[in-house]
Specification:
11 helices; elongated; about 30% strand; alpha+beta; 8-stranded mixed beta sheet
């Protein structure tokens, strides 16, 4: 024991550095420059991803510009073809005089006298029953690279007025000029009408001509001449008329009948039912279109069967169908561009993990070339979409970018299997984005599940990376 102690003491006296190294080995420090460390490479790739948001935003601005142009062209087409259609009628219009008295004090004699006022007004009566059968055929109208959805709808109206409902509105202070009664048809767009209009009333036919609208609804009006007062001799008077419209966007009806029934068929496959009443029955077929039936009963209709003085605005009580384009091509392009940063980030992440795990050197310039290729996908997509369908354009643009990046990565990663992995990864990402774009109700659910799976994969492949340097 003494010999060992003396040996260690003599060794320390002769060479203290050796003794120090034996008892307390010094810490080792990595002399690798910071810009060659994994952390620095990760930061540079992250900053490059953020920088690529600038050209990506320019692409989104281009999509917005083309979308606005599409709306302008669609508006020009509908202005010439026909706009949204709202129609209700017929309404029986009857002028009347209303008598009223007023007590007035004579300032000289201090005596009261009765002053009689006679005022001319107009009464409006709605039918007891109104039935409508409509058939709408849609078509696409294009100008250059832009198009709009329009339709031609054929409507048949039938119904009745009853004498009881008309006489119930009479009173002692009103004097109706029944011999001056006319029929009104209220609508939104006269230029969209494509047939000569006449209405059959009690066995006779009356033509309809444009009339001045002076009431609150502000709709355009078609009015007959005097229809006579002979309908007052009948318990009920039947009417019917046909009307054909060129229109776009939507068709709406106002349930002016005490009982109103509407049946509509169309070849449009994505209708949007809207308004104050929904169809009692409807069938939507992906290949043939839709059939919808509405029935509004007296207890459901929230307005009167007659009005005196002025016809109110009944537009809030309208119902009908919108010819909805669920996801048009420019909207699909915009939705695709929203995922641009996700595609760039995931692609850079795959390259970064392969670089780190396999100790491969990838220059920042090479990352930039890959990022620019990913941005070019969206310019290819929108330009090809304007000349074909979105699905075809997406496939062509995705294949072009995947092949370009895969061939470029073959020279960077030096092994075909690594380039094949890049090809498979990019193909999966683009397929995943395409599915999300096409979905409506389940887009958020599928997107969340897909991102969770991607996060799990990244955590798995990065679990053994040494992050100290």
């Amino acid at each position: 024991m003494l010999f060992a102690h003396n040996w260690r003491f003599n060794l320390y006296i002769r060479n203290p550095k050796i003794f120090f190294n034996m008892e307390n080995p010094p810490k080792t420090y990595d002399n690798t420059p910071f810009f060659q460390t994994t952390t620095a490479r990760l930061l540079m790739v992250g900053f490059l991803s953020l920088f690529l948001l600038i050209p990506l935003q320019l692409v989104r601005n281009l999509i917005f510009e083309r979308t606005e142009r599409q709306r302008e062209v669609a508006k020009e087409i509908t202005q010439k073809w026909g706009d949204s259609v709202t129609v209700y009628g017929p309404v029986l219009k009857v002028p009347y005089t209303e008598r009223s008295t007023e007590k007035r004090l004579d300032p000289t004699t201090k005596k009261e006298s009765l002053i009689e006022h006679i005022e001319k007004k107009t009464a409006y009566f709605f039918p007891d029953r109104l039935d409508n059968i409509s058939k709408a055929d849609t078509q696409r109208r294009s100008r250059g690279n832009y198009e709009s959805i329009v339709y031609t709808v054929n409507m048949t109206f039938k119904g009745t007025f009853s004498r009881l409902s008309l006489s119930a509105a009479d009173s002692a202070d009103k004097s109706f000029q029944w011999d001056q009664a006319t029929l009104l048809l209220c609508t939104t767009d006269l230029k969209g009408i494509r047939n000569e209009l006449s209405i059959k009333w009690g066995g006779r036919s009356f033509g309809l001509a444009p009339a001045m609208a002076q009431d609150a609804d502000a709709l355009s009006r078609l009015e007959t001449g005097y229809i006579g007062a002979d309908f007052l001799q009948r318990d009920r008077t039947d009417f019917s008329f046909d009307i054909t419209y060129n229109g776009a966007n939507q068709i709406r009806f106002v349930p002016v009948g005490r009982t109103t029934s509407v049946s509509m068929t169309s070849d449009w496959k994505t209708p949007g039912f809207q308004g104050n009443f929904i169809p009692a029955e409807r069938t939507i077929n992906a290949s043939t279109g839709f059939i919808a039936d509405w029935k509004v009963l007296p207890v459901s209709r929230p307005f009167s069967s007659h009005y005196f003085g002025q016809l109110p605005n009944l537009d809030p009580y309208a119902f009908g169908v919108d010819f909805v384009v669920p996801v048009d091509e420019y909207l699909q392009n915009d939705r695709a561009s929203k995922y641009g940063f996700l595609v760039i980030g995931l692609t850079f992440l795959v390259f970064f993990l392969m670089q780190t795990i396999n100790k491969i050197g990838i220059h920042l310039f090479q990352y930039a070339m890959i990022g620019i290729a990913l941005v070019m996908f969206y310019t290819l997509l929108i330009s090809i979409t304007e000349h074909s369908s979105f699905s075809f354009a997406y496939s062509i643009a995705a294949v072009a970018v995947v092949v370009l990046i895969s061939l470029y990565s073959l020279s960077i990663l030096r092994q075909p299997k690594r380039a094949f992995f890049i090809c498979a990864s990019l193909s999966t990402v683009y397929a995943f984005i395409f599915v999300i774009i096409q979905l409506e109700d389940y887009a958020l659910l599928v997107g969340s599940i897909g991102l969770f799976a991607i996060l799990a994969a990244v955590m798995y492949f990065s679990r053994k990376i040494e992050w100290k340097n």
